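To: structure desk
From: M.T.
Subject: fold request, one chain
Message: Could you run this one when you get a chance? Sequence is below, nothing fancy, just the single chain.
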Amino acid sequence: MSRHLCKRIALIALAFIPLLAQAQQSGKTVFAAHIEKNAIVAEGLSRNQEVLLFGVSVETLRYEVKATRTWNRVAADDDGDGKVSFDFEKPVSRRSLWAAVDLRHGDYVVLSGDGYDVPVANLPATALRRGAKNDELTSLALLGATANVVVVRPGAGAWLMDVEQNGRNDEERTSAAVMHADLANLAPLSGRAAAPKALVPGDVLLVLNPLTIELSATRIER
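Reply: Done. Structure tokens follow.
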């Protein structure tokens, strides 16, 4: 596989400062996101522009882990004020990791709870597997015991797939260390287009490991 096939984006680690991250820009749109006490806010939108919030949070009670929860929520700027607010019933967990994605252009922001040192994760080129037809990128080879995968095709839609080692959506089940996920198993999150059977340039690929609290964000390039 060509080393120029994809651009691997490292996570942005934010700690002990007010959270405000600028997006990886695909054009002139200024897309940004930040964490408030009880909300995550995306800005720089136009009317009806949709945003996906994807991530994981670890809730604690008296210094003990209470629950680990994954999130995928889509909201639109219905009132034309240039922003979308994802509101929570209680303060955003300090031990949390998020990706906010502009579904129109594919710009995205990765950000973390205040004070949480984000583990840096890059998706290796070897994780993208080619199919037999026209050498297309049709599946993923992922390390770990579980993963939540999101594919965003700007202007078309967003799709989700949960993968478990030797279980759900692990197609080959031949390795104790690697999960083989077929993109054909993606389920819709937003948009009316059919789920992509192969990745194409411009697609955004997000891979979340909720157990290790790691997230990789990759925009597929030529």
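Reply (cont.): The chain has two domains: 8-112, 120-220. Let me know if you need anything else for the meeting.
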